[in-house]
Amino acid sequence: MCATQTVAPASPELMQRLFAARDRTDALFQVVRPDSLYERPIPERHRIIFYIGHLEAFDWNLLHERALCLKTLHPEFDRLFAFGIDPVGSGLPSDQPQDWPPLDQVRAYVAHTRAALDDRLASLESASQSGDGFPLTALLNVAIEHRLMHAETLAYMLHQLPLDRKIPQPAPPRPTAAPVIDQMRNIPAGEATLGLSRSAGAFGWDNEYESHTVHVPAFAIDRYKVTNRQYLDFISAGGYHTRSLWSDDDWNWKTARAISHPAFWKPAGDHWLCRTMFEEIPLRLEWPVYVSQAEAQAYARWAGKSLPTEAEWHRAAFATANGTERALPWGSAPPSPNLGNFDFTAWDPAPVNAFPESQSAFGVEDMMGNGWEWTSTRFAPFLGFQPFPFYRGYSADFFDGKHFVMKGGSALTAACMLRRTFRNWFQAHYQYVYAGFRCVSR
Questions:
Q1: What are the pLDDT digits (tens) for 238-288?
Q2: For residue 66, is it within any domain?
């Protein structure tokens, strides 16, 4: 039953963002050779074909009745493509390619669903507010950012697909930089404002609320993310074989899976290769290392340091010496290519010192883009948390003590999610994320 109330229709700007997000995910699926769309590049995830249907099913299930008073077109597909899989669950999926509908049927579902939504949105003279009390603009922001999140996580999947099953795409020249000099920056004691105020009027996901202030004692933090070169030193020193560097849970995971190096590295005789999206190249020593949170924790212990808390990361990124806080590490200027590696401008990482203009007030660089940054903070609700009634499990299903907060962003993080309050999270043993880290000393 449709329960709507009259409010302002969606703006042309918001609709253009939705169309641009669709273009982004459509282009990603074009990376996969047509005969490989039923592959499962990451064992814990659905097959690629699921995600072609999922993005439209999500938008339809979110909007069609709740806000647009549309009758369902294909209830079976609405259910089939509704839900993904937590990357590290209780077991691996066992479905086979033949268990999924043919590609032409999935493509038809996508086309029909988009057409129905777009026709209704274009015809609205006074758009709707959902029965949950959320305006259409908020729901469309959910649809847009959900799709852009999937653009990034789809890239994680496609990265693991064999190279011969992908169609190489044009890429900008890889930036170069001088060798990285390891340094730390001192951050004085002070306040960090976490979360988003409900009175701010800005869009945020449920886990971003409510705004609150945390006192953070003084600490020092790495100027740059930990590089492949630094992590290679950890491997050469026997870090993966030193029991004292790993928690019981992390050691058991590493041992059971015979993990001895980052998932993006490939041994080649007496040297290492880095597996990028479309080729294998010699390891770029000044790129950030991408590892699981468990691997990052082990490195930090080996270095005699720690991973930062979410509050420490915030203070290093946004605080200033005069007690104010910036919207972004470098100030108030919108994200641009000279300030970091983000918003789909490149497939690959860049050297961690390639963006000197990105530095925070305390001189910490490359905190937005170029790889998410693991923290030691377990993903949990802020005081005042209220789940979205239309997506109750978005955050709450992951408040289990097993997921850790990540901050910053990667090369394939959309610019709209580089806001200060955005929180990402994954389980500690998931190796496929474009996620690095930096260390702190207290």
A1: 999 999 999 999 999 999 999 999 999 999 999 999 999 999 999 999 999
A2: yes
Rounded to the nearest 10°, the torsion over CA 410, 411, 412, 415 is 80
Residues 159 and 200 in one domain: no
The reply to whether 55 and 188 lie within a common domain is no
Task: State the virtual CA torsion across 19, 40, 248, 273 in degrees, nearest 10.
Answer: -90
What is the per-residue pLDDT for 7? 45
How many residues are given for the chain?
442
- Give domain status of residue 238, yes or no: no
Cis ω before 373 (30° cut-off from 0): no
End-to-end CA distance of the chain: 56
Q: pTM of the prediction?
A: 0.94
| Tens digit of each residue's pLDDT (9 = 90 or more) over 168-222 | 998 888 888 899 999 999 999 999 999 999 988 899 999 999 999 999 999 999 9
Side-chain-side CA neighbours of residue 176 (13 Å) = 1
Domain stop point among 138, 165, 192:
165
In a shared domain, residues 420 and 328? yes
Q: 165, 194, 213 — which closes off a domain?
A: 165
* Residue 427: closest CA among 40, 39, 90, 49: 90
Please state the domain count of the chain.
2
Does 70 fall in a domain? yes
Within a domain: 254: no
CATH number of the domain at 376, please.
3.90.1580.10
Amino acid (one-letter) located at 411? A
Is the pLDDT at 87 greater than 90, yes or no?
no
DSSP 302-332: HTT-BPPPHHHHHHHHHB-TTS-B-SBTTBS
Q: What is the mean pLDDT of the chain?
A: 93
**Residue 99, pLDDT above cutoff 50:** yes
Q: What is the dihedral of CA 230, 235, 237, 238, to 10 degrees?
A: 160
Query: For the segment 355-406, what is each residue's pLDDT rounded down to a tens digit?
Result: 999 999 999 999 999 999 999 999 999 999 999 999 999 999 999 999 999 9
Residue 83 shares a structural domain with residue 217: no
Backbone φ and ψ of 288, nearest 5°: -70, 145
Residues 317 and 383 grouped into a single domain: yes
Segments forming the whole domain that contains residue 145: 5-165
